[in-house]
């Protein structure tokens, strides 16, 4: 019998009684919460969950928030939570799951994603980073780029080419890479906001033990689909209260500063307020659907909507602020320890939101995915289908 | 904020959908609906009888004690999705939702009982384009007799019972044969409008008009989003089907990226529309009379649904191109309904203006 809402409330109360948030160090509280199976309730027992319906996580979260319990700051560990964890759950060995999931969830270990390369962005399966087997290890060489949070990450999910003689999708293998290993070099890559949230990562003769392979040799593309589908939901499908996203600061400014109001802005604000509320409801509906399965290509829709909305709202916000909108808070080159879409001021939000339609698959690619995999429309003509990766033009 | 609304469909709701869709596939095929629009009787009273009486759907919102099914707006919304998909010319929204809600507000058990069986069709005599919170016209009441004219009344031409606001603030029940109902030539061929003329017509006062009309139009606006969802879904599905089939330049035109992206965009709008329509239906199902959250849910749904449904139907026409421009292809029925729906029970702009007050984003 699966655990129901009442049982989860009981267990949450038990956790709070044994570890009162006021007198417990946040890290200890999070560890205890994981052990109690209240981290992600739909995960298996022993891995931070209770095999409960995914939708019931909300019950636990609400109780804990009301009690002032510490959270694990999803903005800091978003890649671990949103992408690495579901991939480990679906494709990892039990040993891997036991090793990685707890520190991932408590935030003790941050994860990053070594997928994109200078020559392989949208066409991710064209990647050229090589992994060559040597005894029990794989020797990895190559360059990754735009790697968010690599500078604070302990682990990375990595895809590399293990067989150049087969077509590009077939010769890829999926690994967990230790970012502290010799041969891993992380260099900041400054972005349009002034800060360096992402990086270039150079991999030179990095040794990865075969025990850190995720899925079968050559099956990395399929494993990566789990990551990518979850990434789109993680980026676009967050649970928010009404006015919880980018629309919040705009609505607040509108209420508090009547001198900024114009009729034109009013019309645009109301339209975007509605769009934000609609996106929130769509996310809620998606989560209710997910409660019964893994995300499919539908998650692409959430990300598409999220990107457009964030860009339109943050654009409006800069305009609404008038003279202040012409200013920027800080151009200093910094290396933030978290990915923060909504932080800082309106100018930052406007610039950072431009990445929302690029990271995790560009909007053009996501529209292709919806058209082909959801609507079943014919695929783009392909010239690379039966060609070995090594024979492709690059 | 209250508990998260259930935005999915239950198994019973899916079963209801399947039954309604079966019936409509048999009875409201596109060619039949088009032929009917050119006849003297644009409403399909046979299909109505099968839905209302045969399946008991006219009484979904009416309590069992009053002869109805005692179901909720969530079930009525599923029926409306299917009716929207097939642009069925039946007075479901106007009678089983809007007129019914007005009677529920007045608590008139006798008339509710008549509407519940579907043997009588009701129409609220308020112009279709009015939003729930605006002033509506009323007729003169003199010694219990009603005098005056009301135009733009949806489905009045097939109604047995008219619910008419009087200038004394009351809502009156008037038997249709005591009134003169003149059809207007309407943009929407499947939900035609009519003028109602009352010349000393006897009416029975049911209660206060304002709260009854407001409640009726709020439910109408909220559930209209489900009809719009059905329209948008049909437009998308038919267009995807056609573009997979239709070849130009030696390949299916649906393989051209410019078109794929437009269809993916429509899909996204339809997904959004579904979430808002479900939210509005759920909110109405659990609403008390004065409930801001329900008002917000309805206003959000109508702000989003109308342009989304029109966009879907317009894209369907453009992407069907020449064939879409013909009278024999049903896309024009959907476009006309979608455009008329975008005015019904208040435009998106009117609902955004309502929202401004509801969520405290005042105009300059
Ligand atoms: C803020 C940010 C953070 C990121 N973080 C990470 C990270 O942590 N880890 C990681 O691995 N990667 C990360 N990325 C990289 C991101 O995934 C890629 O930038 C993205 O996949 C696009 O690849 P590209 O930049 O090479 O663009 P390209 O693939 O070169 O695309 C150029 C243009 O062509 C369009 N295009 C390409 N192919 C098609 C097609 N078939 N049809 C239509 N249009 C097409 C694209 O949409 C785009 O507009 C990040 C990117 C950003 C902006």
From TrEMBL, chain A:
Pfam families: Acyl-CoA_dh_1, Acyl-CoA_dh_M, Acyl-CoA_dh_N. Gene3D superfamilies: Acyl-CoA dehydrogenase/oxidase, N-terminal domain (1.10.540.10), Butyryl-CoA Dehydrogenase, subunit A, domain 2 (2.40.110.10), Butyryl-CoA Dehydrogenase, subunit A, domain 3 (1.20.140.10). One of its GO terms (molecular function) is flavin adenine dinucleotide binding. InterPro entries: Acyl-CoA_Oxase/DH_mid-dom, Acyl-CoA_Oxase/DH_mid-dom_sf, AcylCo_DH-like_C, AcylCo_DH/oxidase_C, AcylCoA_DH/ox_N, AcylCoA_DH/ox_N_sf, AcylCoA_DH/oxidase_NM_dom_sf, Mycobact_Acyl-CoA_DH. The keyword Cell division does not apply. Residues 218-375 form the Acyl-CoA dehydrogenase/oxidase C-terminal domain. One of its GO terms (cellular component) is plasma membrane. Keywords: FAD, Flavoprotein, Oxidoreductase. Its cofactor is FAD. Residues 112-206 form the Acyl-CoA oxidase/dehydrogenase middle domain. Residues 22-107 form the Acyl-CoA dehydrogenase/oxidase N-terminal domain. Belongs to the acyl-CoA dehydrogenase family. This is Acyl-CoA dehydrogenase. It comes from Streptomyces griseoviridis.
TrEMBL record, chain B:
Residues 10-111 form the Acyl-CoA dehydrogenase/oxidase N-terminal domain. Residues 213-357 form the Acyl-CoA dehydrogenase/oxidase C-terminal domain. It comes from the Bacteria. One of its GO terms (molecular function) is acyl-CoA dehydrogenase activity. InterPro entries: AcylCo_DH-like_C, AcylCo_DH/oxidase_C, AcylCoA_DH/ox_N, AcylCoA_DH/ox_N_sf, AcylCoA_DH/oxidase_NM_dom_sf. Keywords: FAD, Flavoprotein, Oxidoreductase. Its cofactor is FAD. Belongs to the acyl-CoA dehydrogenase family. This is Acyl-CoA dehydrogenase. The lineage of its organism: Bacteria, Bacillati, Actinomycetota, Actinomycetes, Kitasatosporales.
């Amino acid at each position: 019998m699966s655990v129901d809402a009442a049982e989860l409330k009981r267990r949450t109360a038990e956790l709070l009684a044994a570890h009162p948030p006021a007198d417990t160090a946040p890290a200890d509280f999070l560890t205890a919460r994981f052990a109690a199976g209240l981290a992600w309730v739909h995960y298996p027992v022993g891995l931070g969950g209770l095999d409960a319906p995914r939708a019931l996580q909300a019950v636990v979260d609400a109780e804990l928030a009301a009690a002032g319990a510490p959270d694990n700051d999803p903005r800091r560990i978003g890649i671990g939570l949103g992408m690495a964890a579901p991939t480990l759950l679906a494709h990892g060995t039990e040993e891997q799951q036991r090793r990685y999931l707890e520190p991932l969830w408590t935030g003790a270990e941050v994860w990053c994603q070594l997928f994109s390369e200078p020559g392989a962005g949208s066409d991710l399966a064209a990647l050229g980073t090589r992994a060559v087997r040597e005894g029990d290890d794989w020797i990895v060489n190559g360059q990754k780029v735009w790697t968010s949070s690599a500078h604070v990450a302990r682990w990375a999910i990595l895809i590399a080419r293990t067989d150049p003689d087969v077509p590009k999708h077939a010769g890829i293998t999926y690994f967990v890479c230790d970012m502290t290993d010799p041969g891993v070099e992380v260099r900041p890559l400054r972005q349009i906001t002034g800060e360096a949230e992402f990086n270039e990562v150079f991999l030179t003769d990095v040794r990865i033990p075969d025990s850190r392979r995720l899925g079968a040799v050559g099956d990395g593309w399929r494993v990566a689909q789990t990551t990518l589908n979850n990434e789109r939901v993680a980026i676009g499908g967050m649970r928010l209260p009404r006015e919880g996203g980018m629309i919040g600061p705009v609505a607040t400014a509108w209420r508090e500063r009547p001198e900024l109001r114009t009729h034109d802005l009013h019309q645009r604000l109301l339209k975007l307020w509605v769009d934000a509320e609609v996106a929130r409801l769509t996310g809620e509906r998606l989560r209710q659907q997910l409660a019964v399965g893994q995300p499919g290509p539908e998650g692409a829709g959430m990300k598409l909507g999220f990107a457009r909305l964030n860009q339109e709202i943050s654009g409006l916000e800069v305009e609404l602020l008038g003279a202040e909108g012409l200013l920027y808070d800080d151009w200093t080159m910094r290396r933030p320890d978290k990915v923060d879409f909504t932080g800082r001021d309106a100018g930052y939000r406007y610039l950072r939101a431009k990445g929302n339609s690029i990271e995790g698959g560009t909007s053009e690619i996501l529209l292709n995915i919806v058209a082909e995999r959801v609507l079943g429309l014919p695929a783009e003509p392909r010239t690379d289908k039966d060609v070995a990766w090594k024979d492709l033009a690059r | 904020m209250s508990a998260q609304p259930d935005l999915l469909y239950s198994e019973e709701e899916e079963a209801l959908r399947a039954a309604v869709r079966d019936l409509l596939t048999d009875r409201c095929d596109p060619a039949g609906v088009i032929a009917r629009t050119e006849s003297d009787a644009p409403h399909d009273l046979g299909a109505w009888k099968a839905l209302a009486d045969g399946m008991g759907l006219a009484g979904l919102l009416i309590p069992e004690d009053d002869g109805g099914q005692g179901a909720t707006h969530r079930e009525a919304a599923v029926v409306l999705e299917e009716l929207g998909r097939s642009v069925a010319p039946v007075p479901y929204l106007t009678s089983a939702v809007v007129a019914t809600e007005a009677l529920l507000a007045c608590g008139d058990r006798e008339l509710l009982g008549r509407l519940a069986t579907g043997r009588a069709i009701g129409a609220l005599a308020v112009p279709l384009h009015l939003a729930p919170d605006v002033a509506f016209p009323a007729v003169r009441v003199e010694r219990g007799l009603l005098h005056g004219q009301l135009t733009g009344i949806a489905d009045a031409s097939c109604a047995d019972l008219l619910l008419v606001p009087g200038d004394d603030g009351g809502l009156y029940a008037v038997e249709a044969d005591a009134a003169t109902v003149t059809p207007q030539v309407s943009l929407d061929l499947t939900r035609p409008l009519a003028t109602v003329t009352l010349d000393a017509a006897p009416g029975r006062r049911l209660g206060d008009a304002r709260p009854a009309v407001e409640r009726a139009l709020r439910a109408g606006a909220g559930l209209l989003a489900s009809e719009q969802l059905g329209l948008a879904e049909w437009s998308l599905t038919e267009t995807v089907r056609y573009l997979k089939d239709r070849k130009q330049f030696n390949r299916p035109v649906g393989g051209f990226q410019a078109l794929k992206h437009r269809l993916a965009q429509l899909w996204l709008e339809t997904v959004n529309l579904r979430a808002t329509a479900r939210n509005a239906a759920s909110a109405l199902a659990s609403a008390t009379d004065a409930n801001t959250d329900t008002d917000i849910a309805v206003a959000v749904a109508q702000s989003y649904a109308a342009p989304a449904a029109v966009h879907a139907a317009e894209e369907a026409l453009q992407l069907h191109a020449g064939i879409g421009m013909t009278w024999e292809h049903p896309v024009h029925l959907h476009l006309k309904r979608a455009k008329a729906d975008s005015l019904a029970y208040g435009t998106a702009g009117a609902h955004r203006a309502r929202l401004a007050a509801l969520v405290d984003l005042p105009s300059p």
